[in-house]
Amino acid sequence: MSSEFGDLKIDQIGVVTDNLDRIAEYFKEKFGIDFVTFETEQERGKIRIGLTNLGEVQLELIQVIEGETIHADFLRRKGGGLHHIGFFVKDLDEKLRIAKKRGIDVVEQGEIAGVRYAYLDTEKDIGITLEFIQV
Hints:
Elements: E1 2-3, E2 6-7, E3 12-17, H1 20-31, E4 36-42, E5 45-54, E6 57-67, H2 70-78, E7 81-89, H3 92-101, E8 106-112, E9 115-120, H4 123-126, E10 129-134
Parallel strand pairs: 3-6, 7-10
Antiparallel strand pairs: 1-2, 3-7, 4-5, 5-6, 8-9, 9-10
C-alpha cells in the first residue's frame, strides 16, 4: 500500500522474551532455523538480540540483560511476546517527520550496530509498537 510514507511492507517481527536461548533452540530443533545472536548496550541498559530471516521477513528475538529498557517494561506489563512490527526505510528522519505531522510520537530511538531505529508510540492506539529501521 502506498501513502505519504511510501510503500511500507512488514520487514521485521520483534519478540521480547526472558529466555532467548529457549526460543532459538525451539526454532533450531523443530524447524532447522538458526539465529545470529549478539549483545548490545542501549542508553537505558543492555539487551541480547537474536536475528534470523524467514523469507523476506526478519524475526528478531530480544532479551533484556540489564537495565530499564523499553523491553524490560514490556516484559513486566505483558510477560513477553510480540513487541513490534518493523519497516525497513531508507530515510528514517523523513519517516519520523511524516509520523510527527500525523500525530505519531517516538517512544525511543537509537542505533545498534550501525542500524538506526525508532519505536513509534502506537501501542496505546493499536496494541502493538511499530518501528522504522534504517539499514
